[in-house]
Specification:
CATH topology of the largest domain: Rossmann fold
Number of helices: 10
Strand content: 15-25%
Number of domains: 2
CATH class of the largest domain: Alpha Beta
Strand order of the largest sheet: 5-4-1-13-14-15
Length: about 325
């Protein structure tokens, strides 16, 4: 899927390269090994979108005036293979009320069609196409570095979108040939693969990743190490910083707004991560709703909800 500038109700979406352009951007810059942060390349060291200005604080009752809602999936709409309580009911009610609904996830192992199929399988209808970093990943590599030789540490789906964009996939044993290292959540990760990625990055290959999320939430509070955990290992060893394609960077948020036909202030980003969902939504001017069943400080987002039923009430679609 090529992402081209277009305008339709929302602000014009720039090219991918322009979407990241901002003062002080330092993505994928090399750092001296002696200066590498002891905690590794966190969201701050990867220079995510600055949250310099948040939208004015809004009253919860104003959620019923919003035209669109963008929902995170992992940890928000579902936990592993289980919908969070009230999610299906609230999402269906928003659709019936004529409110725009979009889905935006940092999943590094699937494209939007697979995420939409999972929503249907779990009982959510109707379902709009979901957005994942894989929708634009290959184009990011092209616009940043041109035709590249890419060492992929991640799922077969990640390698597939890289190859589909015209890039050459480099074998682990040929890591010296890589000009770019793509790092995703790799369930078949070995020390050999990890070492090859770190060596390629240390030798000058750029590092690009779908996200920096440290955990992948599962049912009952369980989790798997996330994409960010693998990226940290590579970048700490190599002394580099990655380019981040997904949240909290602006491009996918802007694409979601474009699909909704909304201006940023007309839509809310709903998610469970303050760093990825709330920070990214605020950075592009959206309203923000933090899904926090265990509670959170009221200033963590424009609105904090403990349940989907509470969100439905505030949005004026509860029955």
């Amino acid at each position: 899927m090529r992402w081209r500038p277009r305008s339709r109700g929302c602000s014009t979406i720039p090219t991918l390269a322009g979407a990241w352009a901002r003062p002080g951007a330092a993505a994928s810059r090399r750092t001296s090994p002696g200066r590498a942060s002891p905690s590794g390349p966190s969201a701050s060291t990867a220079t995510p979108s600055p949250i310099s200005r948040s939208p004015p604080a809004i009253s919860a009752r104003l959620l019923d005036r919003l035209r669109g809602f963008v929902f995170d999936l992992d940890g928000c709409v579902w936990q592993g293979e289980r919908l969070n309580p009230g999610a299906a009911r609230t999402l269906t009610a928003l659709h019936r009320a004529g409110r725009g609904v979009a889905y935006l996830t940092n999943n590094s192992r699937a494209r939007g069609a697979e995420m939409s199929a999972k929503l249907r399988r779990l009982g959510v209808t109707p379902v709009e196409p979901a957005l994942t970093p894989l929708e634009i990943f290959g184009d990011v590599v092209t616009e940043r570095w041109g035709a590249s030789r890419v060492l992929v540490i991640g799922a077969p789906e990640l390698a597939a979108v890289v190859a589909a964009a015209g890039h050459t996939i480099v074998d682990v044993k040929a890591w010296r040939d890589a000009t770019v290292v793509a790092v995703g959540n790799d369930f078949d990760l070995t020390y050999e693969r990890l070492a090859a990625a770190a060596r390629a990055a240390a030798a000058g290959a750029a590092v690009v990743t779908p996200n920096l999320d440290p955990r992948l939430p599962l049912e009952d509070g369980d989790f798997l190490p996330g994409c960010g955990a693998v990226v940290q290992a590579v970048c700490v060893a190599a002394g580099v910083r990655p380019v981040v394609v997904g949240k909290p960077e602006p491009p996918l948020f802007r694409l979601a707004l474009d699909r909704l036909g909304c201006r940023p202030h007309e839509a809310a980003m709903v998610g469970d991560s303050v760093a990825s969902d709330i920070g990214g939504g605020r950075a592009v001017g959206m309203r923000t709703v933090l899904y926090a069943p265990d509670g959170a400080p009221p200033d963590a987002a424009d609105v904090v909800v403990r349940s989907f039923d509470e969100l439905a009430q505030m949005a004026g679609v509860a029955h």
